[in-house]
Design brief:
GO terms for molecular function: serotonin:sodium:chloride symporter activity; xenobiotic transmembrane transporter activity. By secondary structure, the chain is mostly helical. The chain is built from 18 helices and two strands.
Length: about 525
């Protein structure tokens, strides 16, 4: 290869590493894969556990006692008529069969028709499965909740590139483990491992975007695009998983995701510099100091409660559909398709509109719509009845997410040191609390009170929390806090600006007086 070609390649690589757009592409792809893996298991796990545990147990247990069931095509001997009668069907009780039809009065038809053959059996197993599936889904968020603060501190010390690549490696291992896990325990471990990788990717990715897009408007647009990757992952994940599981097999969607994760790793090696240690030049504000900021807590609460609604739906809605709608496997994932499409529209639309109409207002309206949509979910009688509530839910969550993520960076710029690792660790912790508390408590509430009451509880919580977003309308800056302190304390304060009047050299004794008169 000629030196000119080699030099051109290195120049292109250097230009790519300096490009903010390519950094945005890397974060977009990382969030896309993370959330595809997050949602691809939603339609797979409930039916997979039902197939491998309930049906396998019933088959291995053998036929039921004679008082309840008889094996199909069993022969019954009649003492009244010396013939052998063949009985069809697994649920017919063995009785003495006579040769005449008049020996027994005809039975009236049942008041209610038997359930369709597609409805799963084992109501008690499905009720218990709500809790188990909820805990499995929550394990990812619980682990991510614990790891996030450490990742935030790590990014402040070594930069964003290395944690981003570590997140890719862990995510790839988790995806492969999902593909070949055949028990609840292994699925639980794979889900928890995904939480570690997701923590590295999301905290480092959002912090990287906030550091390269310093203008507030540009940052809002960039994060809207990055959250579009998150939305696209949610859009593709559940329908992709349900269709692949139905027609190809359980391992197929995870192997496809593992291949895409490898491509993402190659992209990160080309664009980022994982071996480069680039700590922040300025020491960031400690996590506990940020947690004492009421405005950051309000923004984090909005992220938590708005996402808690869809987190509660993930483990409970497929099982509720299996019980009430007798839905086939492919419909369990397709039910989330309207929410994913509308979330994709909402994040991209309000990433731009949020700066014009006010991000606090977008969040307030979004949380109110989340509550109303959740209240409408139990009213659905088939999968088509879920289109409106799920569509409104996804659109409203997109409004909240695309508004709160830039507000987090803006609050740090306004009230703290402009280092973003810790504040986006808090944002991710809030997101994970919703996905940890939601599935783990949602299954228990469904078992105790029923699915409709679960939707009422979380819907009312979102509507009640929405007015708190008003406090984010005009948060005070550092200079305003200094002015308040100067009124309470009899001490002189002096503010400094970034740009000073330039003075000629050499300086004379009267130069300070001249500079003050000039100001």
């Amino acid at each position: 290869m000629s030196p000119v070609t080699d030099r051109t390649r290195w120049q292109w690589l250097a230009a790519g590493r300096a490009s903010r757009r390519l950094v945005l592409v890397v974060v977009f792809v990382a969030l896309l894969l993370d959330n595809m893996l997050l949602t691809v298991v939603v339609p797979i796990v409930p039916t997979f556990l039902y197939t491998t545990e309930y049906e396998a147990t019933n088959i291995s247990a053998g036929p039921a006692p004679p008082a309840l069931k008889v094996p199909p095509f069993s022969s019954v001997f009649s003492y009244f008529d010396n013939t052998t009668v063949t009985i069809l069907g697994p649920t017919i009780a063995p009785e003495l069969v006579t040769g005449t039809e008049s020996s027994r009065p005809p039975q009236p038809p049942a008041s209610s028709p038997p359930p369709p053959s597609s409805c799963p059996e084992g109501e008690e197993f499905l009720a218990n499965e709500n809790v188990r599936v909820g805990l499995l889904f929550a394990s990812k968020a619980l682990v991510q909740l614990v790891v996030n603060p450490s990742v935030g501190l790590l990014t402040n010390r070594i930069g964003y590139h290395t944690p981003m690549f570590v997140g890719f490696i862990i995510m790839f291992l988790s995806t492969v483990m999902f593909a070949f896990s055949g028990s609840y325990t292994l699925l639980f471990i794979a889900r928890a491992l995904q939480g570690i990788g997701s923590s590295f990717s999301s905290v480092a990715g959002m912090g990287m975007l906030a550091s390269v897009y310093t203008d507030d408007v540009e940052r809002g647009n960039a994060m809207g695009i990055a959250l579009g990757g998150l939305a696209l992952g949610l859009l593709i994940g559940a329908p992709f998983g349900s269709v692949m599981y139905e027609f190809v097999g359980k391992s197929s969607p995870f192997l496809v995701l593992a291949f895409l994760a490898l491509l993402d790793g190659v992209l990160q090696l080309c664009i980022l510099q994982p071996s480069k240690i680039s700590p922040e030049s300025t020491k960031g504000t400690p996590v506990f100091t940020l947690l004492r900021d009421p405005y950051i807590l309000v923004a984090a609460g909005a992220l938590c409660f708005s996402n808690m609604g869809v987190a509660m739906l993930e483990p409970t809605l497929p099982i509720w559909m299996m019980q009430t709608m007798c839905s086939p496997k492919w419909q369990l994932g397709m039910a989330f398709l309207p929410a994913s499409i509308s979330y994709l529209i909402g994040t991209n639309l309000f990433g731009i509109l949020g700066t014009k109409m006010g991000r606090w207002l977008c969040s307030l309206v979004g949380m109110a719509v989340v509550g109303v949509s959740l209240l409408c979910v139990p009213l659905a009688r088939d999968i088509y009845g879920l289109i409106g509530p799920n569509g409104g839910l996804g659109f409203a969550i997109g409004m909240v997410d695309s508004s709160m993520m830039p507000i987090m960076g803006y609050l740090v710029d306004l009230r703290h040191t402009s280092v973003y690792g810790n504040v986006y660790a808090i944002a991710d912790v809030a997101f994970c609390m919703g996905f940890a508390i939601g599935p783990s408590t949602g299954g228990a509430i469904v078992r105790a009170m029923g699915f409709p009451w679960l939707m009422i509880i979380i819907g009312v919580i979102n509507i009640a929390y929405a007015p708190l977003c008003w406090y984010l309308r005009n948060p005070p800056a550092k200079e305003e806090k200094i002015a308040i302190l100067s009124q309470e304390c009899p001490m002189q304060t002096k503010s400094y600006t970034a740009q000073k009047t330039l003075r000629d050299f050499p300086l004379t004794d009267d130069s300070d007086v001249e500079a003050e008169n000039a100001e």
